Input
Amino acid sequence: MSIYYNPIIETMPRAELEALQVRKLKELIAHLGNSRFYAEQFKEMGLGPESVHSLADLRKFRFTTKKHLRDAYPYGLLAVSKDECVRLHASSGTTGMATVILHTQEDIDHWADLMARSLYAAGVRRSDILQNTSGYGMFTGGLGIHYGSERLGCLTVPAGAGNTERQIKFMFDFGVTVAHIIPSYALYMASYLEKHGIDPKTLPLRIAVIGAEPHTEETRRKVEKLLDVKAYNSYGLSEMNGPGVAFECVHQTGMHLWEDAYIAEIIDPETGEPMPDGEVGELVLTTLDRRGMPLLRYRTRDLTRFIPGQCACGRTHRRIDRVLGRADDMLIIKGVNVYPMQIEQVLMSIEEVGENYVIEIYNDGIMDDLRVKVEVMSNHFVEDMRALRSLQQRITAKLKNEILFTPKVELVQHNSLPVSEGKAKRVVDLR
Ligand code: AMP
Ligand code: ZN
Output
C-alpha cells in the first residue's frame, strides 16, 4: 500500500509543483475578474492574468484581509453566482465578527480530497473508525473533517462536541481508532479518564488528530502520553476552507502545506515584505482550487515559518512550523512582548501541572501585569503547604526565564478552572 494518498501530487518535483502553481494562479486571476471586489482592484492597478509569469508576480497584487471579508459580508466576495453555491461556513469568530465563505459543489469535493489526503498522511487508513468530536455547526472542523474521513473511506462517527461520557462510550462501543479532537479537549478527556479510573491503554484509539487552536510540542506529548495515542497537528482556517490546509505526516516534523491547492507566503506583518527563508512571520495564503469565493493573498494573522529542508516522508510540499499564535495575540506587558504559547510551553513541561490554565492580564493601578492560574494534578495537590509553595516558586522561576519578567502564579485544584466547549479561551483581559 502506498504511503501517499495522491503520489503524483504529493511527491511532485518542486519545479513542476511551482509551474503548476503559476498556471493555476493565472487561471485564478482570470476567474477573479468575476468578483466585483477583485475586478475593481485589478482594473485600478492595471493587472490581469497576463501579469503573471512567475510566482514572484503574485506580489504585484494586494493583500486581502479579514476586514475586506467583513466589509463584503456576506456575499460581496463571491466570484460565481450564489445559485452555484451549495454550502456556507462562518469562522468561529476567534476575534470579532464572523466572516463567511461560500462553496460550490466542486469546492466541497476538492476540500474533501485535501482532507482525505491529510488524514492519510497522518497514517489514517480506510479500515479506521474515526470519531469527530468537533461541533457540527458553522465551525469547519465538523463537516470538513467529516467529508474527508468519508472520502478516505473511514467509518465515520459524527459525535459532535461535548458530553465526554458519551464520547468515551462511543469509542469503546464502536472500536474507534482515530479521534479528531482539539488539544484542549483532548487534555480534558484525559483528565476525565483519570478521574474515572479508566486506563487509556484500554481505549481502542491509536491516533488523535489535534488542531484548530495553538498548542505546544509539550502539549502534544502530554496528549500522546495521557491518551496513549500518536497525535498529529492539523492546521486550517475557515477562510481557506477549514482543516486540510497543512497537516503533519507520521514523522511529526511540521505540517506539509498542500501547495497544489494554496500558495503560501511568509511575510513581515509590519512591512508586508517576504521574510527570509526559515524565519517566523505571518502566513499569507492564496486559494488555487476554489471557484465560489477564492481569496488572493489572504493575511491569516497566524505566525509560523517554513521548516527548511526535506521531510523524510518524500513529500515535496513544504512544511510549516506549529503556529506560534496570531499576530494579534501578542501581549505587551511591562514593555516585554509575550505570546501565550510561551507560557503554555513552560507549563506543559512541568509534570505536576494539570491540563488547564488561564492567563489573566490586570492592572494593579500603576501598570499592567500577568497572573497565571495553573491547575495542579490531584496527586500533587497535597495539603503540604511547603510542597505547594516550592512548586509555585519553581513555576514562577521557569516562567521568568522564558518571558523575562516575574508573573504572579496561582495554583488551583485540578478541574477547577472553567472549560469552554470548542476552542479554549486561555487569555482573560481584566483591564
Ligand atoms: P476558524 O476559522 O474559526 O476555525 O479559526 C482558524 C484559526 O484557528 C487559525 O487562523 C489559527 O489561528 C487557529 N488554528 C487552526 N489550526 C491550528 C493549529 N493546528 N495550530 C494553531 N492554531 C490553529
Ligand atoms: Zn513528511
